Amino acid sequence: MLIAIDGPAGAGKSTVARELARELGYTYLDSGAMYRCVALLALAAPARAPAALAAAARIEMHGGGSAGPPRVTLDGRDVTEAIRAPEVSEEASRVAADADVRRALVAKQRELLAAGDWVAEGRDIGTVVAPEAALKVFLTADAGERARRRASERGADPRLVLAEQTMRDERDTVREHSPLRPAPGALTLDTTGLTVEKVVARIAGLAREASAPA
User: Fold this and answer.
1) DSSP secondary-structure letter at 192?
2) CA–CA gap between residue 192 and residue 41 (Å, rounded)
3) d(Cα 97, Cα 177) in Å, to the nearest integer?
4) What percent of the chain is predicted at pLDDT more than 90?
5) Counting beta carbons within 10 angstroms of the beta carbon of residue 193, is it exposed (0 to 12), middle (13 to 18) or buried (19 or more)?
6) 114 φ, ψ to 5°?
7) Which CATH class is domain 2-207?
8) Measured distance CA(145)–CA(153) in Å, rounded
9) Cα(50)–Cα(39) distance, integer angstroms
10) Model confidence pLDDT, tens digit, residues 144-195
């Protein structure tokens, strides 16, 4: 079974998807980390086409679950912390607007998701990567709360994070290729004021209903 979780930055996608995968015993895929890896490569090699970097990159995720986010390796090097830097976040939003980058990474994601039970999260899992997912969820939250969450994670000024977030939301929503939006048939769930546990319980219940014999 495949559960697709999409939504904007700060909506709780990563935490919810990771804990949901642990609850259900599924494998967790953080698609955003893949774009961050390409962004890291692009920042280090600005003369190279991001799409070529994406196609050649060997991106792997290890571990995860209740112990914390999975470790991310890029061409054999652990980049778990490096890809969370603010400048990488900004570059990731830019490279994600490149149709050839998306094409390369979507192919890698589909290959991973072809077998087994998965909780996959990102911005276009339900719309592009896996529109056939058995359960599609679009997580959102109040912009101010999303910014506060991100600021807390990064130890940053919430006002600066909100400004960055607003620009990124605009870029992700209006981009020509795979714009951020709920997938047809997706459940839109506002996480404002909700605990991670409540959100996970809600989605886990839906997943069990979807997988139950008719």
Assistant:
1) T
2) 34
3) 6
4) 68
5) exposed
6) -65, -25
7) alpha beta
8) 12
9) 8
10) 999 998 888 888 899 999 998 898 888 888 888 788 899 999 999 999 999 9
The number of residues making up the chain comes to 214
Domain chopping of the chain, boundaries = 2-207
HEC letters along 55-93: HHCCEEEECCHHHCCCEEEECCEECCCHHHCHHHHHHHH
Are 144 and 129 spatial neighbours (Cβ–Cβ below 8 Å)? no
Helices (H), ranges, the chain: 13-24, 31-44, 50-56, 86-95, 99-113, 143-154, 158-174, 196-211
Sign for the CA dihedral angle at 192, 147, 157, 17 comes to positive
> Rounded to an integer, what distance in angstroms lies between the CA atom of residue 80 and that of residue 82?
6
Locus of tokens 């047809």:
184
| Type of residue numbered 155 | G
Give Cβ neighbours of residue 189 (< 8 Å, ≥ 6 apart).
137, 138, 139, 140, 199, 202, 203
Give pTM, 2 decimals.
0.83
Q: What are the tokens at 99?
A: 């149709």
